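Budget justification aside, the reviewers requested a transparent look at the raw inputs and outputs of the sequence design task funded under Objective 1. We therefore reproduce one unedited record. The lines immediately below are the structure tokens for a 490-residue chain.
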């Protein structure tokens, strides 16, 4: 159940927020502590007014103190009088903090949400804390903590698994807690909170629309397969929109969530605990996950990087769809086969390794140029040792040398980060002849200065968004085959 947490300071604006979000919510949490004090007299008719916006909405009343993350700074005695008033004014649920002495609200007939907040961390004894919260039968235990690591997120899921018989809401606030706001059903949570677009009542809130349409909360079942994208940072990943969109289109019972991951060991614990059926790996863990794989394809071994991890009956299998993702758009624009083509590869980092392997596996002649020539030499040595068809050498520093060799270059590929955010050209000294195919794997934005300059010179160009789309499509095929197979361990 998705509850909109209101952030407005006036009652008309609260009701406007409810009306605007009504299509995606089942309930509303009225945050009376955020209202102007002059509006508080309107609380007595507010629950009815909310239901007039959309019938069937449940209404929860909360007056959060500053110490618990709210804005109430008035007298505590006044707050208690207001809480009692809420419970008599038709609110379905009333939030009472765990340290509050007995108030009349407990005898009102409203369901009591007995809450505990930790704004700094995640206490070790979560399960016991939650199970000792209710004072009377029927109360809901709400524990909102602030995980500071992936390991603390895992602790939330483990604790929730041991609270099955207690009505509860166990939430992680902040960036590490985001999956706990989405996986409501998996956690056995009675509800999850969300904020209107552009507002945030609490750290990590998503919008009701994102929870309802992107993550399809109403469709989550015990049978639902969980997938994820893991990285640090992760909030701006485009992968949840892509994979959830395709699962929804094809009616597949699977959901894909973003997970902020600070270390690979707790990532694999989370993958066991949820359990995840597969996950996409992004910066900075593409290399770190290798140590925890039980099987890996040649592409992963050669690239020393893995962007896709799949659950199999015999452990985690690593795949690198960046390799196919890189080659597919290139094949679409090339007139001649890649075998024997001369490629100038810019960069010598992790992406260059995967791209270099992809090119060599198809028999290309690769010259690596990099700002730090020693990195280029080291990469060329590693790639040459793979026993693949193509040849690899290093283009040593010096713009004249590069320009002189340019007529023999058929393809230029940029794997450096230069061009991200639309700034910088990795090879301003390189003179395009116009016959080259120029491929920039940077996709934020796709029209990098390098691409713009190459297109201007008459080159055919391949932008990074095409590689993103191709690698995501290859990943999706793998996830779909797992999600539509028989048991959870397929
Ligand atoms: P990725 O995994 O995305 O490849 P990486 O391993 O950090 O990231 O590699 C970044 C690449 O971009 C390297 O080739 C790096 O060059 P150095 O080896 O000299 O560090 C290159 N790069 C980053 N910033 C650059 C800049 N301002 N100019 C030129 N090359 C740059």
């Amino acid at each position: 159940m998705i509850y909109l947490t209101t952030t407005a300071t006036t009652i008309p604006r609260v009701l406007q927020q409810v009306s605007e979000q009504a299509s995606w919510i089942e309930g509303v949490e009225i945050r009376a502590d955020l209202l102007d004090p002059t509006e508080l007299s309107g609380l007595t008719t507010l629950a009815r007014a909310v239901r007039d916006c959309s019938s069937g909405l449940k209404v929860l009343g909360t007056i959060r103190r500053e110490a618990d993350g709210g804005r109430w700074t008035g007298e505590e005695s006044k707050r208690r009088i207001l809480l009692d008033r809420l419970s008599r004014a038709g609110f379905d649920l009333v939030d009472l903090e765990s340290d509050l002495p007995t108030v009349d609200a407990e005898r009102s007939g409203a369901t009591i949400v007995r809450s505990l907040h930790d704004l700094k961390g995640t206490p070790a004894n979560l399960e016991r804390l939650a199970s000792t919260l209710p004072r009377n039968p029927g109360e809901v235990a709400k524990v909102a903590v602030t995980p500071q690591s992936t390991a603390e997120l895992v602790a939330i899921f483990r604790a929730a698994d041991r609270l099955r018989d207690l009505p509860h809401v166990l939430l992680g606030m902040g960036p590490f807690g985001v999956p706990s706001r989405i996986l409501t059903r998996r956690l056995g949570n009675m509800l999850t909170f969300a904020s209107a677009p552009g507002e945030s009542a609490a750290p990590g809130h998503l919008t009701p629309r994102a929870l309802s349409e992107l993550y399809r909360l109403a469709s989550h079942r015990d049978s639902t397969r969980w997938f994820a994208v893991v990285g640090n940072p992760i909030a701006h990943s485009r992968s949840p929109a892509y994979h959830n969109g395709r699962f929804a289109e094809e009616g597949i019972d699977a959901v894909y969530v973003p997970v902020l991951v600070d270390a690979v060991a707790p990532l694999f614990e989370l993958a066991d605990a949820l359990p995840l059926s597969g996950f996409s790996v992004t910066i900075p863990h593409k290399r770190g996950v290798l140590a925890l794989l039980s099987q890996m394809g040649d592409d992963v071994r050669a690239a020393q990087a893995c962007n896709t991890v799949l659950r199999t009956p015999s452990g985690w299998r690593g795949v690198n769809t960046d390799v196919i993702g890189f080659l597919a758009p290139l094949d679409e624009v090339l007139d001649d086969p890649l075998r024997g083509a001369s490629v100038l590869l810019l960069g010598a980092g992790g992406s260059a390794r995967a791209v270099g392997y992809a090119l060599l596996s198809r028999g290309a002649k690769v010259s690596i140029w990099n700002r730090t020539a020693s990195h280029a030499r080291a990469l060329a040595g590693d790639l040459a040792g793979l026993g693949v068809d193509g040849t690899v050498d290093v283009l040593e520093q010096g713009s004249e040398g590069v320009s002189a060799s340019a007529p023999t270059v058929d393809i230029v590929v940029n794997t450096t980060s230069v061009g991200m955010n639309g700034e910088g050209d990795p090879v301003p000294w390189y003179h395009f002849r116009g016959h080259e195919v120029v491929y920039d794997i940077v996709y934020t934005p796709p029209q990098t200065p390098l691409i713009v300059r190459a297109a201007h010179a008459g080159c055919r160009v391949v932008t990074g968004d095409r590689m993103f789309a191709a690698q995501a499509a290859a990943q999706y095929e793998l996830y779909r085959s797992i999600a539509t197979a028989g048991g959870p361990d397929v």
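The longest strand covers residues 111-117. The chain has three domains: 2-220, 240-322+470-485, 326-467. Computational costs for records of this kind are itemized in the attached budget.
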